Model the fold of this input.
Amino acid sequence: MNPTITAFAQSPDRGRGLARDMAVRWALEEVGRPYDVRLLSFAAIKEPAHRALQPFGQIPTYEDGTLALFESAAIVLHIAERHSGLLPDDANARARAIAWMFAGKSTVEPPIVERSMALLLEADRSWHAERLTMLDERVRVRLGDLAQVLTGRDWLAQDFTAADIVMVTVLRRLGGSELLKEQPIVGSYVARGEARPAFQRAFEAQRAVFAATAK
Amino acid sequence: MNPTITAFAQSPDRGRGLARDMAVRWALEEVGRPYDVRLLSFAAIKEPAHRALQPFGQIPTYEDGTLALFESAAIVLHIAERHSGLLPDDANARARAIAWMFAGKSTVEPPIVERSMALLLEADRSWHAERLTMLDERVRVRLGDLAQVLTGRDWLAQDFTAADIVMVTVLRRLGGSELLKEQPIVGSYVARGEARPAFQRAFEAQRAVFAATAK
Done:
């Protein structure tokens, strides 16, 4: 039996792979595990049936036999723990890679999401320009820190790990913004992630959902 | 050898246990592991020596023999994996508890931190009142979701786990705000966490740092 993930039937990102199912699809492609997808409308993710799987009414979820999981990074970690190739064998290196997964979600992602929300929800407010300047600066600080870490290395740990799946998908939410271009070391890191065949298969799979519904 | 954690020499929370060393202290107290603390000034956490341990210039870090970790939730997970009592034995239940750790840090914490930052950094801006209303609502949605989950249960999983350490410390950042009082189920959950002897020992340990420097 394949595991089943949930994703948006009509993703707000219009097939750009910015929704949070992308990291899970990518991890599954890296380990060569086929999966099924259940597409959900915006209404359906807020209904009790989905909330029983995802208490905050979000996507993705992950069902595999008797296991039901939520939170994309937790799902990626679960996949990495049950297949080889996404976490180092050495115990210390493994713990460090997991630390980077949390860093992606709780230190790097919040200012990026906050900036996206300001662009989406506050564009018509009188304060928008002034606040965006503050938000850009918060993102810049994180990207600067990441650039230091990534100087002279291809991935956060020595080899590609689940942490890179989390971090690259977080950074991709900056989209075509100038902020990523200001830090070419970080930009190259994202491009390295996007160049992986598993990323490309995952990207095409989510884009096919958009293409089918956009017809 | 005891592990060594880092914490603020002068925590901005003035001993209220809201800094991110609190979760790590609590986890170590739960498993009965003594630890040493290295206190750092605000200047020191941004210096290269500390950034080698914590790439974003934050606290806490965790050093145990040859292992150096950062990100409080990752440290809590590491402690939980190497001692008994903080994660379920059943593999599925364990994966769910880890999902709740990520939910605490990446779904519940960001709007709470954003609200704290607005109170701290934007109180004199023209937009403050209008924006605070938006931020309160975002926190309310998360607390409402959590209240549903916690109805009829004491902890996020069946028994107390590392996920409750993460979630309770995240929710405590709401401090004495009315938002927590609006959801008594969530408020009671936080109080249950705070009533644990291990929480109290951890709380006293961090308060002692404040008391000593405030003299």
User: Anything to note?
Assistant: The first strand of chain A starts at residue 4 and ends at 8. The two ends of chain A are 31 Å apart (CA to CA). Strands of chain A lie at 4-8, 36-40, 61-64, 67-70.
